[in-house]
Amino acid sequence: MRTQVGIVGAGPAGLMLSHLLHRHGIESVVLESRSRDHVEHRVRAGVLEQGSVDLLCRTGVGERLRREGLRHEGIELRFAGESHRVPMTELTGRAITVYGQQEVVKDLIAARLAAGGTIHFDAEVLRLAGLNSAEPVVHFRRDGRDEELRCDFVVGCDGFHGVSRGAVPEGVLTSYERTYPFAWLGVLAAAAPAVEELIYANHERGFALYSMRSPEISRLYLQVAPDEDITRWPDERIWAELRARLETVPGWSLNEGPILEKSITPMRSFVVEPMQWERLFLAGDAVHIVPPTGAKGMNLALADVALLGDAFAAWYDRADAELLTNYSATALRRVWRAQHFSWWMTSMLHRLAGDDPYEAKLQTATLRYVATSRGYATSLAENYVGLPEV
Ligand code: FAS
Ligand code: PHB
After folding, report:
1. What fold, for 5-46+100-173+274-344?
2. Is the distance from the beta carbon of residue 383 to the nearest atom of ligand 2 less than 6 Å?
3. Ligand 1: residue whose CA is nearest its atom 3
4. Which atom of ligand 2 is found nearest the CA of 44?
5. Which residues contact 127 (CB under 8 A, 6 or more apart)?
6. What does pLDDT average to over the chain?
7. Residue from 267, 284, 263 nearest 345 by CA
8. Of 200, 210, 316, 327, which residue is the catalytic one?
9. Is pLDDT of 390 > 70?
10. Total-model pTM
């Protein structure tokens, strides 16, 4: 099997890259270890930055997003019994759209298959070879057989637990990491959201987030211990804790309903540099992770491959290697801006280990500064809706 660009992973990064390459007339093959059904139903991110919406729409995969996505022009911060809206669109002229990651994945898979694209599901990549040669080889296993994909370039879009990052020789990569003393318990509930916009709540019992997927489906999160056991969280306990942390303003209550899915997501900040080595390029969670408080994960993945799409086009169209050579340095500017913003949102909103009363006071002061300073609110807003250029 041979192609121009071998892509490991059919998440938002891998699928969008394959779509962008196709639009430039560049062949690719996507190898995905899980089934199509699994990747299309894996509940993860929910917020698309303006730039991600624009990318999907201008490349012809935004039709259902336009129809079903929920455009939001603000978010609400709840703390110390107060509630403050950050009017993001008024401050920046840009907005976010709530549209589940699994819907983006479904739209991209449909577009690739309709265009005759090649995505091999249930095809686990075992190792990458020849990355410093003119013809790298992706070794993978499918239907119990070992197979090879020969290509000009390999792009690792295989997430934090993938194999691509590990294919870079010892001593090349530098890792930067921060772990947090908490995790998120996320639930998907068949309950009409009791809110028009997302609510981020700083509470003495811990952080809570009220999000949604549609007028009928709510998506909610609770800060829990980093090693929390989900079996200790029956539905009643989840709702009771969400009520305690979110129902802090008079006359407002959340809507409950059957919980359709619950899971625990660990919190970490992580970057490896550089994001490329020889003929291997890394994108998305394979090379950086952010705590989801800033809703940046999926958006960063899409921004990475938007750069790679243009870089490969320059290489194949006119043998211009400049964008490919500078991919890592260019992408890392946005990655580190998002790392800082995600860390800042996480530090401001979560009950930190040790219950340091000084920390809690700093959090309240920061939140109140966002609520009262147009300049500080604009800083939060422009990072949240996505900076056009960094
Ligand atoms: P992905 O992890 O989405 O995709 C990688 C793909 O590679 C997967 O389909 C995997 O099966 C495949 N793969 C891995 N190893 C392979 C191998 N050896 N061979 C072949 N295929 C292989 N972000 C937010 O903004 N908000 C959230 O609420 C949020 N919640 C999250 C919850 C969880 C449990 C996780 C893990 C992440 C969450 N994220 C969230 C972040 C998430 O949205 C990522 O940023 C996004 O999925 C990144 O997309 P990709 O880089 O494409 O990686
Ligand atoms: C979501 O709707 O899944 C979501 C929204 C905002 C976040 C994280 C997750 O910061």
Report:
1. FAD/NAD(P)-binding domain (3.50.50)
2. no
3. 11
4. 3
5. 139, 163, 167
6. 97
7. 267
8. 200
9. no
10. 0.97
